[in-house]
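Example record

The entry below shows one chain as it appears in the dataset: sequence first, then structure tokens.
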Amino acid sequence: MAVPNATTRRAMAELEQGRGERLASPENLFEDLDASFRAKVQEALADTRPAVPQQQVMDEAQALIDRKRRAGS
């Protein structure tokens, strides 16, 4: 069984404390998700930090996967 990550645990605690948002319909849920996604895309497009080469990202991701696998065995 997978253990929830920190973000999921915070969201679960928020719901347990009655602070979650209840949407009226599935359409409202999808509109909310769409707005959140669009805001994240705009934030990324406005980011002025230098780009990271794709190979560097892939190498770092593979190193992380390898470390996690070694730690789990």
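Notes for this example: Residues 26-46 form the longest helix (21 residues). The chain is about 70% helix and 0% strand.
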